[in-house]
TrEMBL record:
One of its GO terms (biological process) is proteolysis. Residues 277-297 are annotated as: Disordered. Belongs to the peptidase S1 family. CLIP subfamily. CDD domains: Tryp_SPc. Residues 1-21 form the signal peptide. InterPro entries: CLIP_Serine_Protease, Peptidase_S1_PA, Peptidase_S1_PA_chymotrypsin, Peptidase_S1A, Trypsin_dom. This is Uncharacterized protein. It comes from the Eukaryota. Residues 288-297 have a biased composition (Low complexity). SMART domains: Tryp_SPc. One of its GO terms (molecular function) is serine-type endopeptidase activity. Keywords: Disulfide bond, Signal.
Length: 297
């Protein structure tokens, strides 16, 4: 019986969230399907966020592609930066390989209206790009996890769920790991999360936690669950527990992840609003947007 329920749930996921649509409603590209490239490039949904500081563009957080025009990350990463200082690096797994992938600027930052910086509540944000992402084997959107209905028909049993955490971050000797870190982990039990973090963050399942190798510098990075042949964005890295006076989290660090399923409706509404606006103006890129799409520096 349980297998039948899981099979039905997977079918619902694939039917409802299996493709992305363009503003005209036409099928654009399948979501969550890893390309045929070599192992390090199996995460075409993951991107790096860059900020300009004193004229220099620096990596500082991760995010996930959710459409051609938007990436999804953590509010705490982008709260204090105007859009014009931000950019997205896509199609790469090694940040030192400047010939890999490309870079697109950010035109608008949409922070969840209920976000509270003091306790990371609703720590989620959408970044709208100045030009559409060039989809291909190394650049694709992840699938959305369906919203958790008030009726509870779709189970949200997270404990023990196997997923993959992806990101760049602080590693040994407080140095950034410039090669993408990828590790399969299982979601920890709620009692363990509550014991290590604040209870109120977990009692309503807004967050869950897992032992991951990524933390500082990996804020906004995704936790992906594979169902069938697709990857679904299930969580977003928010904060972790590190040893006192240590900036890196390292291996075997309990990390808190935002439960993306609680925000699916909000995300899709923002994307729908953008699509509606696109239909009201010419779809061609302006010369300015085209010029701002550039290769990594």
């Amino acid at each position: 019986m349980r297998r039948q329920l899981v099979a039905v749930f997977v079918a619902v996921l694939q039917i409802s969230f299996g493709v992305e649509q363009d503003p005209a409603g036409q099928v654009d590209v399948e979501c969550g399907v890893a390309g045929h490239q070599a192992e390090p490039m199996l995460w075409p949904f993951h991107v790096g966020l860059y900020r300009t500081v004193d004229g220099e563009s620096l990596y500082f957080c991760g995010a996930t592609i959710v459409s051609r025009w938007f990436v999804l990350g953590s509010a705490h990463c982008v709260l204090h930066y105007p859009a014009q200082l931000l950019a997205v690096r896509y199609g790469t797994y090694n940040l030192t390989q400047l010939e890999q992938g490309g870079r697109i600027g950010v035109s608008r930052v949409l922070i969840h209206p209920a976000y509270r910086a003091q306790d990371f509540s609703h720590d989620i944000a959408l970044l709208q790009l100045i030009a559409p992402l060039p989809y291909g084997d190394t650049v694709q959107p992840a699938c959305f996890w369906p919203a958790i209905p008030e009726t509870g028909v779709v189970p949200d049993q997270l404990e023990g769920t196997l997923g993959t955490t992806v990101g760049w971050g602080i590693g040994p000797h407080n140095l950034y790991t410039y090669v993408l870190q990828i590790l399969e982990v299982r979601v920890s039990s709620k009692p363990r999360c509550i014991e290590s973090f604040e209870e109120r963050l977990f009692k309503d399942d807004q967050f869950f936690c897992a032992v991951t190798p990524v933390c500082k510098g990996s804020g906004g990075s995704g936790f992906y669950v594979k169902l069938g042949n697709r990857y679904y964005l299930r969580g977003i890295t928010t904060f972790g527990i590190a040893a006192k006076d240590k900036y890196q989290c390292g291996i075997n660090t309990l990390t808190s992840l935002l439960n993306v399923a609680h925000y699916t409706d909000w995300i899709q509404q923002q994307l729908a609003d953008h699509s509606a606006a696109q239909l009201q103006r010419p779809s061609e890129q302006t010369e300015e947007n085209t010029m701002q799409q550039q290769q990594p520096q």
